[in-house]
Structure formats: C-alpha cells, structure tokens
Amino acid sequence: MASSGLHLPKWLFDGFATRKISDGGYNDSMNVMLVSIGAIIFYAVGMACQWGRITGHGGARNRVLLATSAGAVLHALSLYFSIHSDKGTNLGIFTISSMTTLIVTLVVLLSSLRKPSEILLVTILPFTIISVLVGWLTPVEHIFHSPTLMVVHVLLSVLAYGLLMVAVCQSLLLAYQEKQLRSHNQKRLLKALPPLQTMEKLLFEFLSVGVILLTLSLISGFLYIDNMFAKDMLHKTVLSLVAWVLFATLLIGRWVNGWRGQKAMRWTVSGFILLLVAYFGWRTIVDFILVR
C-alpha cells in the first residue's frame, strides 16, 4: 500500500488487515476503519455531554442527541460494509453484537423524541462503543447466503434483543431510583431522572414491544430451521423459550398484580441473561469451536 505521508499507528491497521472478505482489495476495510473511528468519536462526545448534563456541568440535550445520531449513522455504515461481502451475508458474532447495540441506541434516540429517556445513553453508549471497536478490530466471519426467512429471523432476533437490553438498563435505573427515594437521598443522578411513574411506563413499554418481537423471532425460527430441538440447537431453543416465559410472566404479573420495582428488575435481568447465553453462547460455540 503506497504511503500517503500520513503515518498512523500500526495497531490501527491490525483490525482491517485481515478483513479482506471480498476481492475488492482493502477499500471496504479502510471504509470500516474510518466510519468505525468516526462512530466511536461521536458516541464518546454524546456520552460526555449527557454525563455533563447529569453532573450539572453543562451540555445541551440537543447536542447529546445530535452527536449520538451522527455516531449511529456512521455505526450503521460500518455494519453495512462489514455485513455485505461477495461470499454472502457475514453475520459473525461480533457483527451481531454491534448490530444489537446499534438497535439499542436507535431505540433510545427515537424514544427520547417523545419522552425523557436519553439518560439511558450513559449506560448504553459504553457498550455500543466497545461493540464498534471489537467489531472492527476482531472480525469474525460467519457467512450466510441470505434466504429471506433467515434474514427476517435474524433481524427480528436483533430487534428483540435490542429492545430487551434497553428494558434491562431501564429496570436497573428504576430500581436505583426507587431505592434512593425510599432512603430520601437527593443525588444528582436521581434529580436527573424522570418521575418514577414515567420510568415505570417506559420500562413496560420496552418490555412489551421486546416480547412481541421475541415471539415473532421464535416463530420465524421454527419456520426457518428444520429442527429447533436438534442437538446443536437445543440449548439455544430451550433457553430462549424459558426467557420468553419469564418476560411474559412479568408482563402478566404487572397487569394482574401490579409488579414493579425490584421484582420487575430481577425478572427482566434474569430473562435477558438467559437470552444472552442462548444466542451469544451458541454463536460463540459455532464461530470459535465448531469452525475449527
């Protein structure tokens, strides 16, 4: 590669040097590097501005949303370059992780247009930044040839995980808020949070939509995959179904018995952990063990 007079550290190129997925040379790899760096910078600015708002050191709300939105656009471009290849659709574990955090970020951004949910960005953006960085520097290929139903299943799964991850963050903030209110603490973070009723409403909105998407994801999986209870799929299917039961029980408990607070947090976190193990545990086995 010809020198352009700009000498960047060697580690910057370690990630994309192995990313020659197609025969188009290093153009796509360079694109992934540039947009990934841009996404990380804008996300970091958005996170810093939101933290400044919480701690009382300034930072306009519009600045938070604009910086995060710019990061999301560049994040989406990095995923586009990573996923599309001449071999087929690349859906390796880190690509899926990055896609999930992008969905999470977009959900919070869209929600913040009508409700004060941007405070969640402080807890979400660090994971988003890490996922962009890992997806760029440690690419893992898992090529599909894109049958339509498979793509639908993957997209529904990613959307479901994204919504439910937002619900987890929301439930943790809600549990913290309730605990601090009971002990009459007046910390800056507590003052920055929306009213308790608004937080609860947001939580169960995220949960409801997430469970609907998870239901559709499971249905599409049963339609696409010949045997969801085959040996190599068994733990993924069983754990996903158990997680679905936990989330559905929580929603019913909320509707019938008014479940909230610490109980809602425990059920939400438990269900999401099961989903993480179900999908990402299975993807780890496929990408790092079975392929070798």
Lay out the secondary structure.
Layout: H1 11-17, H2 27-55, H3 61-83, E1 84-85, E2 88-90, H4 93-112, H5 121-137, E3 143-144, H6 148-182, H7 188-192, H8 196-224, H9 234-257, H10 261-290
Helix pairs in contact: 1-2, 2-3, 2-5, 3-4, 4-5, 4-6, 6-8, 6-10, 8-9, 9-10
Overview of the structural elements:
- This protein is mainly alpha-helical and 292 residues long.
- Helix content is 75%, strand content 2%.
- It has 10 helices and 3 strands, in the order αααββααβααααα.
- It has helices at 11-17, 27-55, 61-83, 93-112, 121-137, 148-182, 188-192, 196-224, 234-257, 261-290, and strands spanning 84-85, 88-90, 143-144.
- A hairpin with a 2-residue loop joins strand 1 (84-85) and strand 2 (88-90).
- Helix 9 (234-257) packs antiparallel against helix 10.
Q: Percent of residues in helical segments?
A: over 70%
What is the oligomer described by this structure? single chain
Biggest sheet, in brief? 3 strands, antiparallel
| CA-atom Rg in angstroms | 20 Å
| Overall geometry | flat
What string, H for helix and E for strand, traces the elements in order? HHHEEHHEHHHHH
Give, in spatial order, the strands making up the sheet with the most strands: 1-2-3
Terminal-residue CA separation: 31 Å
- Overall pLDDT score: 79
Number of helices: 10
Query: What's the total number of strands?
Result: 3
Low-confidence stretches: 1-25
* Secondary structural class: mainly alpha
Approximately how much beta-strand content do the residues carry? under 5%
